[in-house]
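Let us begin with a simple case.
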Amino acid sequence: MPVTFHTEGILFDLPQKQKHKLWLRAWIEYQGLSCGNLSFIYTSNKYIRSINRKYLNHNYFTDVITFDYREGNTLSGDIFISVEQVRKNAISYGTKEVDEFRRVMIHGVLHLQGYKDDTEEERAGMHQLENDALLLWLEIEGND
């Protein structure tokens, strides 16, 4: 099933789209799941805040919001990513922008897998899984 990339109200072009699709599908399959329709929508802080207000009753910016349409072991969903917030995160964390985009992308996928980040323990677990997924990216990238 397709992994797609879209924008809403901004100009943004994710590099290496095909490789990102391969990576995301490989991660999902590595977790024993199937990849259904997975849409990444890159947008602005203003847009993601409006989604946060409308659907989650939160009045703040965030880097990612995930809408889960999972059916059984098939992951499907919409993952909204604030390009502005991810760029700010990269500066704050001293990471490359593209690496922070990957981390946020896989963070959204982890939410679709059922992982939460409400407590410090849950956040630490998700961070470790993000690191594992990023290691898989490096393996895929190295196979060029």
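The second case is a distinct protein. As before, the sequence precedes its structure tokens.
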Amino acid sequence: MTGVDPWKGGGGVKTEQNMTAVCQTVKLVNPLEDQNWDARLLSHPGYSFFHSSAWARVMWQTYGYEPVYFTVHEGNRLVALLPVMEAASWVKGTRGVSLPFTDFCELLDADGLLESALLPEAIKLGEKRGWNYLEVRGGREHFASAPAWDQFATHELELSADTDQLFANCEPAVRRAIRKGEREGVRVEILRSVEAIGEFYKLHCFTRRKHGLPPQSFTFFENIHKYIIAQSLGFVCLARSQGRVIAGAIFFNIGKRALYKYGASDERFQQLRGNNLVIWEAIKFLGHHGFKTLNFGRTDLPQEGLRRFKCGWGATEKTIEYVRYDFRKNEFVGREMHQQALWANRMFQNLPVGFGRLIGKLAYRHMA
């Protein structure tokens, strides 16, 4: 795959003089040390939860990743942002990732400052710190002709306080599933307690095993509770049938935007449609509290059934494209297709849940 020179293409004519002037405005910010970070973030129209200080703190507390956010400001207004975390690992080396364990984290660049300001500074720091690569998860359109390193789908739903209209926007199959869950007596709770996190985590571990993946550590979810949910930046939805938790989900929010981040269910009770009721009650709750959008996270493009399910709520689908700059080749690189380690998926499906948790606790720090 042919690489792309980061200094070429896009952004108009740049003289050495005006490039220097712009680059001087780039400021490295650690959102963990900036008490006004989230307020400045919300001043940019492209903000998302993953740009927030809360998500950065979860990453830092759980894995020790160091935040290095490249910013351009005009007064208190955030003009451009390339958020990066340095992930050091004896397994995979040191990398700059924007950002670890995010579905998407598009750079914020309404004024075309990526190639003239943000990217040169990021490459300079990466060379100094010995990064193997810099990966940006979303926003490939800002990178001139850089090839896509990976591709996913994402789905976003417009919210409102009009419950009847939200229900009408759902496809008939989704409406039938909601009604069936209600007839079956499934009840959904919206919670912010650490106990709710624990109940969700039990389901999460079994769901991850079903999909052939190790779960993140419980410490990771404890930090999600401490720095996100307990700060009213998210909540847990749990669906119960006869007192038993049969489905659950974790949602994040900032400003007027919400995100569906984690979902899990007990497949033995799939016919009760707990998953559908969890999402429906969250949609109603968010609309009632004035949120404007709900993002359903990322989906692998080959997962057509899951993509249809998310579209069934009235959400709009778009493609997310990641880019990767390889410091060993000094260029952006792409790959022909996403490679899945099917043998690893099969192995995790047959491991005891406790062993999968141990592997997740040891491995995720190196994965970023």
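The first helix runs from residue 16 to 23. The CA atoms of residues 176 and 273 lie 10 Å apart.
Keep these points in mind for the review questions at the end of the chapter.
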